[in-house]
Design goal:
The protein has 67 residues and is an alpha+beta fold. The protein is 22% helix and 57% strand. A hairpin with a 2-residue loop joins strand 2 and strand 3 (51-64).
Length: 67
């Protein structure tokens, strides 16, 4: 049996939602062990002068706790 924990983090990118997700997961892996998945809880864009200038995501990251 394993026990997992879920933590919330936010990430942003100047290029895309996909990049924001990848950056968030990569950063989570530097601190958390046994990351097994993530759920995109929320996403939004930042607009300046009618153009999208940043993409933001809120992730629920799941990781399995050590025995």
């Amino acid at each position: 049996m394993s026990v997992a924990r879920i933590t919330t983090l936010s990430s942003n990118s100047k290029t895309s939602f996909d990049d924001a997700i990848k950056e968030g997961i990569e950063r989570a892996n530097k601190t958390l062990r046994n990351v097994t998945g993530a759920w995109v809880k929320d996403q939004k864009v930042e607009v300046n002068d009618g153009a999208v200038v940043a993409w933001h995501v809120v992730l629920e990251v799941t990781f399995v706790l050590d025995d």
